[in-house]
User: Fold this.
Amino acid sequence: MENRRKDINKRVKSFYNPPHLLLKQAVAIVLYAMLSGWNKKAFLLWTSQLKNLIHAGAGAKQISCFGLSPHVVWEMTGRCNLDCIHCHAFGGEASYDELTEEEGRALIDQVAALDIRSFVFTGGEPLLREDIFDLIAYAKSIGFSVFIATNGTLITKEVAKLLRKYNVGVVIGLDGMNPEIHDSIRGVKGAFDAVIEGIENCTAENLYLHLNIVATRRNFNEIERIIDYGDRIGVYSYFIYNFVPFGRGEEIRDYALSRNEFKALLDLILAKQRELRAILIPVAAPEYWAYVLQSRGIHTKRIINFFGRFFGGCLAGKGMMYIKPNGDVWACPFLPANVGNVRKDRIDMIWRALEKIKFSKGECNGCGYAKVCGGCKARIGDWDCPLRDC
Assistant:
């Protein structure tokens, strides 16, 4: 067993291996800072947090929708203590036939063999899995950069200390600074107070802290307030989700942003990025990368394709593996097309199947910004691109 563990420890490469990947990462973030107009002092403060920078960028080949490419997300349980109205996973009760701890360890081993270095545990609420810290410890022992995506309400002081012990990046969903708005979206009274307490426990342990914000018509006016709150407490990164009516969210389709509201969201993200000491990454909004280039007057295909080496747009089929509780694999949490199951299919074959998925190009066909955007595959046929006719 000891020899096997030594072999496993060598399977996930260190962040500095190979050196040319580090160089590409450095170029990507500098280019992003230049294009977005990121305030130089704020940007330098962000890059000076080397431990967090290394954690965030482990193995990254591009900055894309859903963050870095490539990475794996395991929705390890359907159980949840909240009842969020926008939940894509129908969180609440345990999902049918969830992977066991032993199967989870086997999954982690297989992912390590793909030369993927970032692993995200999510749910449902992953802190409801009794084996969560055993699995986190195992992933860390192999060398993964580990994140946990949680609603934050169960992060007690003791849990925060465990997260610090294993050096876990903490991703917490926050949908409003107005308690009434946050609670109404999260479906449980008192959720706001509980998540703020969880966030404070994380900051007390100086954890890598990331906030997820789902942008809907219900909370649009709260987004800037959340971002400013995060800046005050030292949040390192944000995902700003453009709400996709999927899962439980299908029942609130009228909460989805209109074309003009979506454009206003892109404007807000770009404006806030210029002043923050954190990085803002839009999700289900790969148009952002095209929007940033367009705002700089960059229209030449050759130059756009150059930036496409660093900014990847939509990750579906080219850098993300989303694993459901029963082992089914999707290209994205908002795309239910099943391309395999980790219980019966080799994960390297599943990865190849993901890369071969043919998506409809819809309105993106012939667009000059395809290399940096490509459109959101989950929204094609149900959206109106804000860049069209610009």
